[in-house]
Each structure stands twice: as C-alpha cells, then as structure tokens.
Specification:
single chain; 188 residues; alpha+beta; OB fold (Dihydrolipoamide Acetyltransferase, E2P); Helicase, Ruva Protein, domain 3; five-stranded mixed barrel; 8 helices; 20% strand
C-alpha cells in the first residue's frame, strides 16, 4: 500500500495529478478545491495517499495533510460512502466544520451536499459522531450556515459561497466572515 508520495508534478488536470517518483508516474485524485491551489507542473509535491483497491481498479487519493487523510478514511468506512463521495464531502467545508456538523447531528447541513440524501447523512452522523468526539459549540456552525445563506442571497452559487467560506477563518464572527468571503469572491 502506498501511504505517501513525494515527486514532481508532470500533469495537472481538474480532477487529478500525475506525480512522477523514481521514473514512475502515479495518477492521484485530489479534493477538487485543492487542485487550483497547485500552481503548475514541474514543481515538487508531497502528499499523503490512500490506496483504494477494488476487484477491477486501484486508485490513489492524495491529501496535503494527514488530518484530511484520516477524515477521508473515516468517511469511506461509512456504508454507502465511497471514495468519490468522500472527496465531494471534503470539498464542501473545512474538516472542523464537517466535524461540528456531525457531532451536533446536523443532518440539514450534510444534506446540502450534492448527492447526500437524508438517509446517507444520518448514516454519517451515526457512524462518526462517537469517533470524532465533541467539538466547539454550535454557534460557529450556525454562523457558517448563516454566512452561506447571506452569500447565496447576494447572488453567489452555493459552491462559490462554500469555497470562499472555506478560506475564511472559522474563529471570526458572521459579519467578518461575510466581508472576508466577499473580498475573496470579488478577487476572482
């Protein structure tokens, strides 16, 4: 099993990277919102890797930090959540926000993820709530939801708003979150 990889990026697409190490190019799928952060090919990169083996395929999923890898592995152990679904879930919010939603059994937040229905969201909560333990109060999660709704009411899509909010500090109040997210969205 491949646990990590360090090498030169020889190809970057909107869904995966090919990283060359010791003359071998590895196709590694990443969380979609991480790919734009990777600027160019021919740069050195180091990734934590989950090797997913099935009867007919062997896929590699890469993560910039170990915490993302651990959360990804917890998600794929939930019945009904595969690696592609786990990548989508990781792409919608920070790990801390997702953990808060799970620990507070906020099924509504999880069902706003494309492809996650009520039953799947309930499974995620039931399977992972005890594993992730308690997190900060629900105020910051509610602030995240309120900021998301405010940005959507200003005409931004849910995906645009989520991407901007992921880049904003989770420790700030709702007004500051919205202002910082608007700066990010305005800079596009």
């Amino acid at each position: 099993m491949i646990g990590s990889i360090k090498g030169k990026i020889i190809l970057k697409t909107d869904k995966f990277l090919i990283v060359e190490t010791a003359g071998v190019g590895y196709k590694i799928k990443l969380v979609p919102n991480v790919l734009p952060e990777i600027k160019k090919t021919n740069e050195e990169i180091s990734l934590w890797v989950h090797t997913h083996v099935r009867e007919d395929t062997l896929d590699l999923y890469g993560f910039l930090d170990h915490q993302e890898l651990e959360f990804f592995e917890m998600l794929i152990n939930v019945p009904g959540i595969g690696p592609k679904g786990a990548l989508i879930i990781l792409g919608i919010a920070s790990i801390e926000t997702l953990k808060q939603a799970i620990s507070m059994s906020d099924i509504t937040y999880l069902t706003k993820i494309s492809g996650i229905g009520k039953k799947t969201a309930e499974k995620i909560v039931i399977e992972l709530r005890d594993k992730i333990g308690g997190t900060k109060s629900g105020n910051s999660l509610q602030g995240e939801l309120d900021a998301l709704e405010a940005l959507k009411s200003l005409g931004y899509s849910q995906n645009e708003a989520r991407e901007a909010l992921k880049k904003v500090s989770s420790d700030t109040n709702i007004n500051t979150k919205i202002r910082e997210a608007l700066k990010i969205l305005g800079g596009k």
